[in-house]
Amino acid sequence: MWIPTEHEKYGVVLASFRGTVQHGLPLEIGDTVQILEKCEGWYRGFILKNPNVKGIFPSSYIHLKNAHVKNKGQFETVIPVEDSVITEMTSTLRDWGAMWKQLYVKNEGDLFHRLWHVMNEILDLRRQVLVGHLTHDRMRDVKQHITARLDWGNEQLGLDLVPRREFSMVDPDEISVTELYRLMEHRHRKKETPAAASTHHLFVHVKSLMSANLGEELEVFFHIYDGRENRPLSERFFVRLNKSGLPKSPEKTERQCTLFVDLGSSDLRKDVYIVVHIIRIGRMGAGEKKNLCSVQYRRPFGCAVVSIADLLTADSKDDHLLKVYACNTESEWHQIHENIIKKANSRYNLSGSNTGLAVALQLLHGDIEQLRREYMVLFTRGVSITRKLGFSDVIMPGEMRNDLYITLEKGEFEKGGKSVARNVEITVYVLDIDGQILKSHVTAGSGEPGGDEYHSLVLYHNNSPRWAEQIKLPIPVDMFRGSHVRFEFRHCSTKDKGEKKLFGYSFVPLMQEDGRTLPDGTHELIIHKCEENTSLADCSRYLKLPFSKPSLPSNNQTLKGTKESFWITSFLCSTKLTQNGDMLDLLKWRAHPERINDSLSKLKEIDGSEIVKFLQDTLDTLFGILDESSQRYGLKVFDSLVHIINLLQDSKFQHFKPVMDTYIESHFAGALSYRDLIKVLKWYVDRIVDAEHQDHIQQVLKASEYIFKYIIQSRRLFSLATGGQNEEEFRVCIHELFMSIRFFLSQENKGTSPVAQTQAMFLRTFPAVYGELLKIFTVREVAGFVRETLGSLPTTVHADCPLEAVKLQCIAKTVESQLYINPESRCILLPVVLRVLQAHMQEQRDLVMCARILTSMLSLIKKEETGTAEPVVSEEVELIVESLLGVLLRTILEISNRPQSAGTAMRLQFQDVTGEFVACLLALLRQMSDRHYQQLLQAFSSKDDLRDFLLQIFTVFRILIRPEMFPKDWTVMRLVTNNVIITTVLYLSDALRKNFLNDKFDYKVWDSYFYLSVIFINQPCLQLESFSPSKRKKILEKYGDMRVMMGCEIFSMWQNLGEHKLNFIPAMIGPFLEVTLVPQPDLRNVMIPIFHDMMDWEQRRSGNFKQVEAKLIDKLDSLMSEGKGDETYRELFNSILLKKIERETWRESGISLIATVTRLMERLLDYRDCMKLGEVDGKKIGCTVSLLNFYKTELNKEEMYIRYIHKLYDLHLKAQNYTEASYTLLLYDELLEWSDRPLREFLNYPMQSEWQRKEYLHLTIVQNFDRGKCWENGIILCRELADQYESYYDYRNLSKMRMMEASLYDKIMDQQRLEPEFFRVGFYGKKFPFFLRNKEFVCRGHDYERLEAFQQRMLNEFPHAIAMQHVNQPDQTIYQADAQYLQIYAVTPIPESQDVLQRDGVPDNIKSFYKFNHIWRFRYDRPFHKGTKDKENEFKSLWVERTTLTLVQSLPGISRWFEVEKRELVEVSPLENAIEVIENKNLQLRTLITQCQSRQMQNINPLTMCLNGVIDAAVNGGLARYQEAFFVKDYIMNHPEDGEKIGRLRELMFEQAHILEYGLAVHEKFVPQDMRPLHKKLVDQFHLMKSSLGIQEFSAYVRASPVHFTNGSPRPCRNSVPNIISPDGGRGIVRRSYPAVNRYSSSSLSSQASNEVSNITGQSESSDEVFNMQPSPSTSSLSSNHSASPNVTSSAPSSARGSPQMAEKHKHSRENACLSPRERPVSAIFPNPLDPAQRAAPHQIGDTTLPRSDPNLSAPDKVRPTPSSWSLDSVKEGAPSFSDSVGKLLCPPVPPRPPYSGSSAKNMRSQSPVPTSRSPQKTTVPPFTPSPTECQSASLVSNSPVLSGSYSSGISSLSRCSVSEASGTELPAGDHPPHPLPPPTTLPNSVSSSSDEPIRRENKTPPPYSVYERNNPRRPVPLPHSLSIPPQTDPPALPPKPHQLRTGSMKLDGTSDPRVPRPRPLPRKVSQL
To answer: Is 1461 exposed, middle or buried (0-12, 13-18, 19+ CB in 10 A)?
Structure first.
């Protein structure tokens, strides 16, 4: 049975548990668990990091730990009972663990490794703490280390700053906000700027001396030297090196390492140096032979210098190699370091080219004790301490030191009868009072132990040697008296045995008779002659002699006259001995009472360090004198006491204050002194007002703290001694003293007067007195003193008076004193403090100090309240709120709005103050209870005051929420702030409801309230989703989700507004929308319904909610692009609002709005996902296009639309899609007009006129078209610009534009263009973004990109996608799958501009543009076998499934891919397939023959290969296979409907034979010699082929009319090639037409063939196209397999082609015959039946409508007879003028601009009558459309309103021209008739007029994007099937001959006059952009 646990509440997992049992909870080692229940060895509970999942686990896996339980029961929380540092460490390390791994993933290796080391270090320290064997001090150190490392890691990882006190985390609820702020600030400051250490230490480690010429031992001396004052700053550090240059005692590190301690900050400057002197020990001369002499001397070797400032910049761990210099002459040795510093190069040189001293130097900063902790290794290993000469900057009491430093300066010696100067060596001894040598008391330097004697270095042959060697004599104080130092001088002979001969000595006693020590300074000592060592044995003999020359009596001329002298400099550094006689006189005052006055006067002149040495003795002396003769010396003693007290204020001696405090507490015995002290102090105070000089009085007042200490202590001693006598008298004295003080304080003076300065001095020291007074007086009495004293200050003081600031400082110290902490005194002092504070804050003066005072006051209140909530505290809060809340709010507002331009220091100061005041405000608000709020709100006398207060506090709260309010890692502080804000807002919202609703409604207050609430919810520190789980859990446990609380409050307040809601619509839509985008489900559920409410109120007000919709859409865009919102939000928004509006009357429009907004969200979310870093350009572009279209078509948001146009433009430029970039920018260009309307600054455009902006856009677009090699489009824009320049007579720019246009023409002709591939891509599955999901697109590939590369690119863009391996349409399972499927295959473009492509003599460079631009339709063919496959002849059953895809926009356009709008599928029969194949091959042959004849081909190989492939058809059996398949009786009998097609096939075969014959003739003419045998073989095989076809001879009439290849009409052709196909190519042959009467007669057949062939010369396809044909399984030609090139079945020829009434079928066969093989699919060219949509009645003359052909129809699967009984003669009869005019109608590929609005074609059309057919019932009239050239000439530049289809967009849009379709009409997919349909009858006129055509794609796409779409924005839809008239059966018409299609197609355009001037563009309204 499961029992709730009592004590087993918390544990740590010892081993991982898989949780495989039922209800098992998987555990990992180290997890912490909370236990709820137990049962027989099992626990039930949860892991703390995931409390939602509960389960069971074995108890043996858990190590239990003690814990406190809070809120016992269902929601209990467990807090482990362990050191808070351990708890923090554990949770922090867990957080770091996850982030640490992320560092590795992000490749931040450096931080990864550093953090790893720190984590290991923390774990080690944690173990030490847990074991619990540490001493108290060590535990403190370990915790300090831990917290320092935790803080470092948190800072590096960007985690929160943890407020701590004594290493433990602080609970922000348990301390006041001001205190929390202070802790945070302190930690932040510590982190930001580590306090500069005042003391510094230099660590020196000698490694070795590197030199080539060693061989002797060395002594190395280091000291720190001041180059400015030319004196050493420290004693010397001494290292001995062996003969190899390495330290002599390597095992003793203290002999190699030292710490130069106590360097002040002033010593770290450029002119302070480390000086190294190196002495060698050995022979006199460095080059002497070894055996010459055994005696060793100390001789100069070299010197090195390095500046300390260099160490500040160098890396601390660096080793330094110091250059060693030697002096040129030994006499310079004493100043070699100075010469090196001064760079006096002539006096020294390098001691050797490679001599260097290797030393490690490092500067350490901070207290020596701190260094001992931080560099423990250094100190444990051993390091010698090298002291400063003299005391450090700060003298510590208790410091024991007694060092005498003696420097051997120089000597003057006589020759002593020698011819050369002496080699003098000095030996130094210290002897005590008994004449015994003191052992080990002579030290050459730190590092080596002291010796009994010291030998100086020897300077060779020098009678005036200068040594400058410093030695240290650490003589104990008790041995000082009577000791002396003896210097013995010896001459070191270099001859004989090198002995050292004594020749004299000097001595100096260390202490004088009167007890003073040897004074510091240089002493000239007498050299006494002496040659025997024995004579020095008894020192008493020579101690009676004089020792220094200055002290000689004047009568002793003998010694004074000697030239020999010896100079030393002495310096004593002692804490016990003095050299000052005055000091000794004072201390011995009883011996000389008459000198007391003198000694007291001289005390002020004595050096401070002497006084503090004998502080206690001095004070005893003073009070002794006072006790004995107070009347006589009282004033002097008082002054001396003041001098000593003030001396201790000096920073050098400040550490002696505790010494004085100890003296007062323990040693002071002047029980009667208080009377004298009070009397003198009062005497001074009374004299203040009258005294002229205030300096001394100010010194007295400065010392008042200690004077009062002495007074109070003296009185206490007196009371103890007498049992409290004279108590009243003492109180009266003190009261009188304070009256005097109050009197002098009340004097009003100018700020600069001496009295005012004295007042200020008193106020500075006054607060220090409180503590002393409290020792005798009660709290209330002292508080009374203070209140009255502070109250006596003059109130009307000038603002600039310095006294005001001091007064405030005094208040601050008062508030921080012990006195104020007591509640009794606080209620007395608070009014005074508040009065002063209020005055200062109102005037914005001394805010830093005000903040400090407030902080102290409020932190006290908090403490009090946490103990017992006394009424006193409540009253205090009330007082503070009443006097300071308003002024505090104003102050914060004032500071925050202050311009931050002032100096940095000033700015920082204000920043600090803001934080302090904010903390005070929060602390105050947190203390306020219901009662306080009620009193506060009732206190406002008028509504206006309350309104101002509310506005003020809301504004301040908004400031508090600002991100810059606190540093970014102060989350703790921010959460406290938010908690206070939400509590206060809940109180104030009641006031808002009560006072500002209904008739008292105040918009401003409510607006401020809502605005605050919104930014409160949106602030980053409340977005819990972005935090780690542990942090989120902590915040939720402590504060809950404050966003939801505030959201509920907003909702409740909104509901209260009633009809006033209308004031906030639409203003609050954006802010509320921002709130709902916060990813908190509860908040969203609360807030989203407000939108329904807004819609409802807006509907009531204006009958619609357009405003709501507009605002929602505007804000959504900006908010979602900032990263807000998600898919869940979209669904929630949709579902909540749809549910809400179910019962509304305006439900329909509401649903529409919600749907629009939801769809916009879809696109915006996609856009945001795509724009993420690392996404591919293709996705970004596709997504931007989708969004741009949505803004244009569905929302009509022009500004957003234009913004996205520019975003898309930038994307294209980045991806180098220059053509697409041009089309994109053209969208904006089309919105503008050529007008002078001024446009505002927008995006990157300056303020300019509309004309200027349009001009700029035109130029940019032209430039991009140029870069994208789309020059034809650029030309059109150049012309338009040129027109504008011309109309403004701007000939300069006009000239430039014409030149630019000309250069584009040149580029078309000269530069190579790559032909792109096109690919169809299907995106299937739910995982794709909305704009791609389950849609198919056609994409224009990159240059050189083939299918495999494209497929790979797509798979890279969508790495999770699966490529489908088939081309069939996917089923629903794929559509609905939670995956991504890609289906990709290549498709072939169907060009629209057939006219240019079929025109003869047009160069390929021009044609290539029309083949691959402005393509709407694409085709894909799939071969398959229907029925049984004949293995002998597979052509019988080879069908082709042809899919035609129509896009929403033509390619290229604003994107590289567009969606497929329409998909049509037809099947092409085997017979039709055969016709296509042969037509393709015939066209290819014609092209090659033409190119060969016109010498366009460099070599003849392509023609050879093509002829060989057709004639020698070995692969697929050639034409014979077709004969077998389709010319057999069985087939003709079974397929009677195919009779016409069979005839067509037969004609094509004969035509092919005919072409081949002439092809061979041409080939013979050009074939090179080596290929003659092949040619002969081809001729032979051709005859065989003819016989197999059954063609023996061509008929007679064929010979009579030789085949010619004219251009199909008697028109002049500028660039025409020779027209004759005969080998000589010379004769012109007249074209003849034959009536098509007998369809199958030989004459008609051969005339057909001849006329087919006659078209060859006009074609000029490049030879590489023949080679580049792609194989396709569906295409079997005569002998080779070629698929259609990308341009196969194109739309119908749109130039003048065929008679106006010619059936579509006829056009089709001709135009396809003219296609190149690459342009033709497997089944492109065969006669097509007419779809009902394509039938139309003859148009009436003058009809102004513009009928169009259907661009969406493709080839059908069955051929139907064409209802036309008239032959080609009817053309001649009906339209005699056409053939003559055709030549004039055709235009060059980039059209010229006519001078008038209409085109020649239209005008011709309107004048010529429509030919009537012989049999009206049987005639069909295909729709007429302008050709591209016609369109261009008509309106591309003309802006004719008649033709401009998208005039609204500002310029005539370059729209795609509707053209007749190449493949004729096609049935929609699934509409195939099962049997041939009977021919149709004519439709009535109304059906065909374009006005009745269904409008296509009106709402799906923005304005047309193609440059050629500027006139026809819409393409027509086929007529519905129901409109067609039942057909009648009639014999089929004769297929037309190819050349007869070359007549112009005309428009029924009414009678437009060619001379009509071009109209001005119509203005349209565009929002001013």
So the answer is: middle
